[in-house]
Design goal:
Layout lengths: L1 E6 L19 E2 L2 E2 H10 L5 E6 L3 H8 L8 E6 L20 E5 L2 E3 L3 H10 L4 E11 L3 E5 L5 E6 L2 E13 L15 H10 L4 E5 L4 E3 L3 H18 L4
Parallel strand pairs: 1-4, 1-6, 4-5, 8-12
Antiparallel strand pairs: 2-3, 6-11, 7-13, 8-11, 9-10
């Protein structure tokens, strides 16, 4: 099985660290977050990983090389210009069977084998790993109608959303909807798939998930990692 890791972003929210180190090389414990992801994928049978790279790509190549010491084969796909989150897939060849796509900065205990099995059971073209997030608004929210009449006032409400974990399973047919070399993000790709009648599924996971996009979440992930390590690397 093949996996694609999106590792070309500049990680601006983690600056200044990411001015000198690409976000996928930011350490969690004693290893880069991308190494954590690669080990998780290897443990479910992924034998080839394609890294889509851009910002500070040479540092990732120097660290991961051909992937031999991680038990997988690693290839690199270079972006000359930013292509969004889905656009880089248009440059890839050899994705002829079900494959995983993931952001390069996710720490989770999600059992990837269950995600792939669910995708195949549903006969989906695309499956999105989802997580429940509670968003608290620290302000009073005012409800109005069209004539400016106040109809409600909710003090500091909490809203529940299912959010994308940045982990997907795709069938090769999805690639036909991605224009080559053009900028495209995943939300737009999903809308295109739905508009064309493709079956898009969501797999809800209520275990641990942390996106490392900002300093607070990155710090929390480092605090959490020691207690999660055995579960993350289950099967090694």
């Amino acid at each position: 099985m093949k996996a694609v890791v999106l590792a070309g972003g500049k990680g601006t929210r983690l600056a200044p660290y990411t001015n000198v180190l690409p976000k996928p090389l930011m350490p969690i414990g004693e290893m880069p977050i991308l190494e954590v992801l690669i080990r998780q994928m290897r443990n479910i049978g992924v034998d080839e990983v394609i890294l889509t790279v851009g910002h500070l790509a040479s540092l990732m190549q120097a660290y991961f090389q051909d992937g031999e010491r991680f038990g997988v084969h690693i290839n690199y796909s270079f972006e000359d210009a930013p292509l969004g989150t889905a656009g880089p897939l248009s440059l890839l060849k050899g994705l002829t069977e079900t494959f995983i796509v993931t952001n390069g900065d996710v720490l989770t205990t999600l059992p990837l084998s269950q995600l792939v099995a669910f995708h195949k059971e549903q006969k989906a073209a695309a499956t999105i790993a989802m997580h429940q997030r509670n968003v608290k608004i620290n302000l009073g929210v005012i409800e109005t109608n069209n004539d400016h009449t106040v109809t409600g006032y909710i003090e500091k409400p909490t809203f529940d959303y299912l959010v994308s974990m940045g982990i997907y399973v795709f069938e090769p047919a999805v690639l036909h909807y991605i224009p080559k070399g053009k900028y495209l993000d995943f939300p737009d790709l999903v809308k295109i798939l739905i508009a064309n009648g493709e079956h898009v599924c969501g797999f809800t996971f209520d275990g641990y998930w942390q996106d490392l996009g900002n300093p607070e979440d990155y710090q929390q992930a480092n605090l959490d990692f020691p207690t999660l390590r055995q579960q993350i690397f289950e099967g090694e």
